[in-house]
Automatic annotation (TrEMBL):
Superkingdom, taxonomy of origin: Eukaryota
Organism: Pseudocercospora fuligena
Protein name: Oxidoreductase sirO
Keywords of the record: Oxidoreductase
InterPro entries, sorted: AKR_Detox_Biosynth, NAD(P)_OxRdtase_dom_sf, NADP_OxRdtase_dom
Domain named NADP-dependent oxidoreductase: residues: 17-122
């Protein structure tokens, strides 16, 4: 499993190190953009970068900016390695699509870093929706849905809201929280294999242990799984835009 290291203010490094080790988590996911760069700095200064495998993302500005130009990738990765105190990161992600730079140039730049050994793997990165921060009635302030972003474009559909309503009903009937339904389905009922990973987000250390405990409760009742998987038919068409790189902002 991998933990997203975003809100550094609420995750004391020493406490986080102990919790992660107790939970068997060996990888930390961060980004040049998280907390205006403070996330990577804290990971480097606290020594977490030496104790865990680190994944990070190229600094993202806006979809219409050339944030994945070779120059931008080089600058972002060089700074990440510097503040993390590393010579290599495990995975370097594209934080978001770049609709300006030709994809051939983006691919070449990533390939050069892979061949140079500054990154081990390269991955394109395709949300809080399950937390009901975003509903038909309105948006909760202070979340990624509180302004017009790709997240609102991806999820602000009747089909998505209807699916969440049905998911909430499944949660109430089964006595399992919506986050637990999601985590246990991913670990025990999805197509993920043993070698695959689940990236968890947490703003507090207790959320880390809570998520791990929920996944460790094992497979769910067959009827619950069937109900969950039936939701896909209703969102399949609108969900296509989430993974479509050609979607224009």
């Amino acid at each position: 499993m991998v933990i997203i290291f975003g809100d550094v203010k609420q995750l004391p490094p020493d406490e986080l190190r102990q919790i992660l080790q107790q939970c068997g988590i060996t990888r930390i996911d961060t980004a040049a953009r998280y907390q205006n760069g403070e996330s990577e700095k804290i990971i480097g200064q606290s020594g977490l970068a030496k104790d865990f495998t680190i994944d990070t993302k190229v600094l993202f500005s806006a979809p219409k900016d050339a944030h994945l130009s070779p120059e931008a990738i080089n600058k972002s990765l060089d700074n990440s390695l510097k503040v993390l105190g590393l010579e290599q990161v495990n995975v370097l992600y594209c934080h978001a699509p770049d609709f300006v730079t030709p994809i051939s140039e983006i691919a070449k730049a990533f390939d050069e870093h892979y061949r140079a050994g500054t990154v081990q793997s390269i991955v394109p990165l395709a949300g809080g929706f399950l937390l009901s921060n975003f509903t038909k009635e309105g948006v909760q302030g202070g979340t990624r849905f509180s302004v017009q972003t790709p997240f609102t474009k991806w999820y602000d559909h009747d089909s998505m809201h209807d699916a969440i309503s049905k998911l909430r009903a499944i949660s109430e009937q089964s006595g399992l929280g919506m986050d637990e339904l999601s985590l246990r389905w991913l670990k025990h009922h999805s197509i993920l294999q043993d070698q695959d990973i689940i990236i968890m987000g947490a703003g507090k250390t207790k959320q880390i242990t809570g998520s791990v405990e929920k996944m460790d409760r094992g497979p769910m009742d067959a009827q619950v799984v069937t109900s969950l998987e039936s939701l896909w038919a209703g969102v399949e068409q609108d969900a296509a835009a989430i993974v479509d790189f050609e979607l224009k902002p």
